[in-house]
Every structure is written in C-alpha cells, then in structure tokens.
Design brief:
Layout: H1 18-25, E1 28-34, E2 40-45, H2 54-65, E3 69-72, E4 75-79, H3 86-92, E5 100-102
Parallel strand pairs: 1-5
Antiparallel strand pairs: 1-2, 2-4, 3-4
This protein binds zinc ion.
Residues 6, 8-9, 11, 16, 18 line the site of zinc ion.
C-alpha cells in the first residue's frame, strides 16, 4: 500500500493518471548519430524531463533493447542503432506510436 500523493493532481499515486497523460503528450524524436571510431548511437529527444523521469525511462529502454545508455540534458543516448525496435518498445511503455518520429 502506498500513501504517496501526486504533486500535480493531489491524488494518491495509485490512482493518479498524470504519468499516462504526460506520456501521451510527449513528442518523441529518434535519430542516430555516428560517433568516434564509427560507433553508432541512438538519440531520443523531445521528452519533457519535468514530466517524465528520464533516468527511469532510460533504464527501461536499456532493459528492453539490451544495450547500454544514459540520459543527459534531456536527451537519452542508447548504444547502437535501435530504429527498428524502439517504436515497439515505446508503445509497450505507454507512449503513443503516433507521437514518435524516427528519422
Ligand atoms: Zn497526478
């Protein structure tokens, strides 16, 4: 049992819908970049870190995609090219597919 109260809506966190609402409002942009020594990284931007915990999200993404990664300055960096799988993973985590822009 949890008696934590949401700071946004003042409802107990068990029944609060703020996280789901926040997820549906994010406009997620995904692109890849080539780094030093030809390493490919997948960068995820557009997620409001005041609404979504990026450190929690990056942990879930790393588990789902079985890769390394980190979150810094509002941008999630994942090792490797995950363009083919990341949309499915975001959907699984509750982010609407329509809001995910992969380039
Ligand atoms: Zn709430």
């Amino acid at each position: 049992m949890s008696d934590e109260i949401c700071s946004i809506c003042s409802l107990p966190k068990d029944i609060c819908r703020c996280q789901e609402l926040a997820k549906s409002e994010q406009r997620i942009k995904v692109h890849i970049e080539k780094r030093k020594w030809g390493r490919i990284v997948t960068l995820v931007s557009g997620i409001d870190s005041r609404e979504i915990s990026l450190s929690e999200l990056v942990t879930k993404l790393k588990n789902q995609l079985a890769c390394g990664g980190s979150a810094k300055d509002g941008i999630i960096l994942l090792m490797g090219d995950h363009r083919h799988n990341i949309r499915r993973v975001f959907e699984k985590l509750g982010f609407p597919s329509d809001n995910i822009d992969i380039s």
